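User: For a benchmark we're assembling, each entry needs the component sequences followed by a predicted structure for the full assembly. Here are entry 17's components. Please fill in the structure.
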Amino acid sequence: MSSETVTGPRTFAVIFVALLALTGTTVWVAFVNLGWFNPVAALAIACAKMLLVALFFMEVRHSSRITKIAVSAGLFWLLILLALTLSDYLTRWWPA
Amino acid sequence: MSTVAQTAAPPREHYLNIEYGIKSWLLTTDHKRIGLLYLMAITFFFFIGGAFATVIRLELITPAGDLLTSDTYNKMFTMHGIMMVFFFLIPSVPAVLGNFLVPLMIGAKDLAFPKINLLSWYLLMAGGMITLYSVIAGGVDTGWTFYTPFSTTFSNTHVIGAAVGILVAGFSSIFTGLNFIVTIHRMRAPGMTWFRLPLFLWSNYAASIIMVLGTPVVAITIVLVALERAFHIGIFNPALGGDPVLFQHMFWFYSHPAVYIMVLPAMGVTSELISTFSRKTVFGYKFVAFASVAIAVFGFLVWAHHMFVAGISVYAAMIFSILSYLVAIPSAVKVFNWTATLYKGSISYRTPMLYAFGFIGLFTIGGLTGLFLACLGVDVHVTDTYFIVAHFHYIMVGGTVMAYLGGLHYWWPKMTGRMYPEGWAKLSALIIFLGFNLTFFPQFVVGYLGMPRRYHAYPPEFQVLNVMSSAGASILAVGYVLPMIYFVWSLRYGERAGSNPWGATGLEWQTTSPPPTHNFHETPVVEQEPYDYEALPEVEFVA
Amino acid sequence: MSHSEPSVLQVPELQSHFGDMAQQKESATFGMWLFLITEVMFFGGLFCAYLVYRLQYFGAFAAGSQTLDIRLGALNTAVLLASSFTMVLAVHAAKIGSRKLLVWFLVATMFFGAVFLGIKAVEWHEKYEKHHIPGPDFHFEETLTGHSPMVVDERHAQLFFGFYFAMTGMHALHMVIGMGLLTWLLIAGARGAYTPEYHNPVENVGLYWHFVDIIWIWLFPLLYLISRHY
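Assistant: Structure for entry 17:
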């Protein structure tokens, strides 16, 4: 789908600034004691940055349906690997 | 559509005679030539793997470990496994038959990325040569499963060499899968909708998904093993608090779906053979198509059933156990649908059909024993015994190799323009079937009785069954050598085949045997449903 | 994805097995996406292993993380994001047919890539001097500082650094490959190989480059920010 929805440099600049802001945020938050929320925040921010790069810089939001399916499948498969592996480690020392 | 095989004159110009010389083969980008290059390669690797199997079965004729030391024996089963799994089974149907047929079956001129296709072959060869170097330089003794910390710390053999060879071959597989997926999505002929695709394509598509998503994980695992061994970056090293079971998780995340890479294309071949030789459409086409994709997806959810006794959490074991039961369902759907296809079909017992029958029966036995193994209570007892060895050989040899041979016979006339000799082929199929069962059925028994795998000696009460198994192996070997001989013979003396000797449906039969380099003189337009045998006249096979 | 002799007037080459350029372009882009998905699983395996040990040896991982220079890590993150920004501008330049801008933005992207690798080298050198490279010379006696100080197990700290080098090393390798691809684009682009009608290679290398950026987007918090407040 060579959809000619061209994203302009201005949009890219906005996204870039947003990415820098998120980077700054994640560094700042790391120094604040939020207990169990710290890793959650860090991962959530990383996820947001990834989505911005993927959707805008990699043009996923304008891509064909099969591309979107493929990208989602890739992430989903990684989740399978993580979830099922952790299902072992997180329950290994549960009482039998 | 032309149907009957006559002694048709071959087309004047086709992909084999368009160019001669070694460069025209080594630098080809024609998917058909690349398929034949793969045929040469994997046949070579098959016989190397078979040589190791021969040594194993020779040792196991007697209970005492009298032929080899235990260390040498370890090398034999390791290298047998490595050559057979990575350099024969995984490429076999997709790289030989898939490469040849995928573009033909969808009405395309080639795969999406022909140069990458050639690169894939070179990667397999390079990987094979690197692994062979390790074999010749002294071998590897870790088992094809490379469990840590033996493979990373304690083994004194050429682990890194073998691992790097497998890594390189893995990229071959990844690129093939990538090529197939893009091709099937983007290069179908006009009118070739998804549900008009032959089931061979659905199966290869599903297998390609596995190749693309699973292989990279074993790639990084191998890299980590190599790093640990070479630079002591110990990630699986228990001395540092590393967990050897983590290696197993990462290894089996790929290696279990890998067995579906081996069996799905074989199932695809079986669908083609069953329908052609029953002259009937495959029963429940959509179910079979979706079952292929379901197997690919579910196949990724079951890997830890290889690890039930490794020390994983019992709760995780229960999850993987139930998932392993579920993965059998789509396979069973296929077996039932093939059987239903036979019902009221016009069945002919040509060699490819014999192999298809062999596949269905032996795959079913292998698959059922897999269900036994999914049960935690049973698996605890038979893990690491010959029961497991028999189970996977039933599927991989009784299943995949049989389907591969069936496909090779079926499409031989298309690939070469020649028919193989039917009498000898039937005889070989029978020898293989008998030899196979004699080799592996006793292994179920002896394994259940407690004989462990990967040992070069065993208690004397198991000798009779082992001798039966070794005898079977020698018969099986004869069965494998015969086709080599008569296929080569047929290249010069075989009866010439027309474009459609089997009277089959499918675009590959609409072009000449052998096909021209660009497959079709004009791009076909597809208007018929797949396997539309009702529309075809009856066929009389020659000879 | 091939292109013929460099010339301002060159027509992009339609490969014989494709029906038209649109099919060729869509196939190439889809192929690149599939390749990137294999890379997701490749790095994903590393992330999975990392996650398992971080959960088990949190203290040691946190202590190891604290010895990483967060300023250099944050700077590198910004540098790589900038390189992604210049990369999309390069693709845009190709789309509007500006050869000059294309070349400049490719050079800028490579510049940022080189800066990243340079900073990485500095960090690794520092690790070498502190004996934090896993192996026979490894030595770790830093304690986990902050709210709940603890002495950490040196062996588990070695595991952390094993991951640090494996993950940043694999990432750096991909950056180097990316630099090679950018060099190819630069040479071809400077000769006018890319036009508004044909600039698919620029887009596809861009996809690869952004992917490598995304990997770093995850590596930074996972390695550098485990716990800075402990």
